[in-house]
Amino acid sequence: MLDLSRIWAGPYCTKLLADMGAQVIKVESLRVYDSHRGPVSPARGIASYPDSDGGEQPWNRNGWFNCLHMSKHGITLELTDVLGCELFEELVSISDVLIENFRFGSLARLGYTYEDLRKLRPDIIYVSMPGFGNSGPWRDYLAYGIGQEQLSGMAHMTGYEDDGPMKSGINHGDPITGSHAAGIILAGLRHRRRTGKGMFIDVSQLESTVALLGSYLLGYQMTGRDYERRGNRSDLYAPHNVYPCLEDDSWVSIAVTGNNEWHALCRVMERVDVSEDTRYGTLQGRKDYEDDLDDIISAWTCHRKAADVAYRLQDVGVPSTPVLSAPGLLTDLHLKDRGTFVRVEHPWAGTHTYPGIAWKMSDTPGVVRWPAPGLGQDNRTVYGGLLGLTPERIEALENKGVIGTIPTDSRII
Amino acid sequence: MPGFLEGVRVVDLTHYISGPYCTRLMATMGADVIKVERPGTGDPARQIGPFPPAREDNPEASATFMYLNCSKKSITLNLKAEQGREVLLRLVDSADILVENFAPRVLPSLGLSYEVLSARNPGLVMTSISNFGQSGPYRDWKAVELNLYGLGGLMNITGEPDRPPLREGAPLAQLGAGQNAFVASMTALYHAENTGMGQWTDISIAEYTTNILENALMQYSYSGREFERAGNRGYGRAAWGIYPCKDGYVGVIAGPDHRWPAVAEIMEREELADERFRTRLGRLSNADEVDALMLPWLLDHDKADIFRMGQERGLGFAYVATLQDIQEMDQLNARDYYLDLDHPVGGAYKYPGPPARPSEETWEFRRAPLLGEHNRDVMGDLGFSDADISDLAEAGIL
Prior knowledge:
heterodimer; A: Rossmann fold; formyl-coa transferase, domain 3; six-stranded parallel beta sheet; three-stranded antiparallel beta sheet; 12 strands; B: alpha/beta; Rossmann fold; 2 domains; 39% helix
């Protein structure tokens, strides 16, 4: 896979495929590298660097970049240079898939439409994923993950009761689009095996995200009622919330999905009086008195540790989990037992913990093969080994600044 | 059937949200997906709604079910009965993929573990989605979306710093895990078609949320500093979030520093061009002042206009689209995104279209099936006679 994508949506797609063993060649420019590498000269104290220190080559030390590019090769290439284009064309000719999430038309303006790419590789699968797709009145518009969350409806549906919409802690639209693209690429490869035909895949990140929320759009058409934000509460269950626990800013989630669970919760809280109160005996009753019940539960949880509450409730079959922050995740017994996170040593950043392979497969489980590449780290391997360029030619390209490992500009998109 | 998954037969033992989204992707790309439902009540998503006014609580008219089960066939089968399991095993014999999202103890307790199924059909790709995964101390814990989102670390970084952590309104943990289950299934299918060997994939919804937690986890892992809830001022930025405007909420997304002067220009406030606000850190340390300068103009303008004005000056502005806004969105309609499907009980609606558009034809969207609508077709294909089928129906198996 020839991967010209940047930031998160495209890189998440190729991460899933690299985890499964695909040979992903990530292509960056020395003038405009992947923004997730951060600025060339970052301010001190930015926490995504080891010990909040960018160090001498900060672009190789940013955790946000390094977690998304494990097991990929990293090369540099200037598509605005004739020699760079020659290298790019050779790489296209040996690639099954080309993926980019530039703004609409960027690659075409450099001389590479799908038709051009087909001449280099007739059965190429070319995935183009600008924010709003490759057509329509918004095709030239600029899309950030935070904006997609708003335009797709996710932000409208998220927020405290009787309050405004709220952004989520991450930009969900990126992994949503990345995962859709990964699955469709694999299905497209199957089609190619059967028919010999490659294809152009136009991915609108907006459409990809709205596709997830169709139930709500159908519901709106049925009822004429738009979605009302209700914090952590649910239409289906009550109580259904997070509750404060003993330690500072610690919380436990509890969802009571039936009457038996309700009485079990009351038993654990040693509140026979509440359990026997017939007003709370039905879902409707518990919804009517939800504020009161949340107060009763909070009064019990606030003296206890979140994990202790969750364990005691799960023992009697009540859905409950601690609300974990990063340190809690890294010490959680279950996630440890499953090997959810992996320790990886990185030549510039040291040894750190990363999310591991996203699922477990019995026969071809996938493995982190190597850490994220530094900028241009694999130039020699890819250009020498894969394309067969002589060391002299590679050196000449380096001297001309067509390829390299030190950025020449700090432009961040 | 056309489509990239032409000729792929899927036995679909999924229900609710996560698994059905996975098999929806398969079905709409041309796989023959046979959804196996419990006789009588079927997939519990049939009870969730929302429902059209004249069809309250009609299990055929639940929006959640109707959307998540497009292009599938439905049969009913009582898996607690020996004869029901025998029918299932016959389906498995000719299947390429089986997807299920029962609690991990359920299928083994019915004698339908991966070992049993793969012994029948060594080429079977089996994908299991569960809340916490097929192993580990929480394997049998119970959970709804709230609990999974909470455990996975995403909830703790969503919401205001002085208020409780906040969940997403939409079930993004379940849907995202369903998406990844599709990717895993396609990987396993690729391997199976190459080697003849199937395998078992274990997907945990809680684990999915940790897999997309790039910021908080990496920041803590690299520097030991926790990523805090920051409301609409996340990612260490100001003028990078949701603001009220005249007719709703809008996304002021300032972009890189060199574009900041355009914001001052649009909002006709020279003060915003002040030296102190020129850099990202400058804006962040004066965030309240920046907001106060922007608000009067924002409250005087409509979201669609603010969005357009920003975009026309190269700024990645957005707006908080309501469900109505999404239906009316120019960009989606200009690309003919929505498709019309008519359901005999639920009614005719506009459905969001495909998540991507390959130049080779693949998508085929058909309405969701009625409960057991394909019992006769599917059972007939397996070689059961009409009399067998009637007997099984009478015995409550079908």
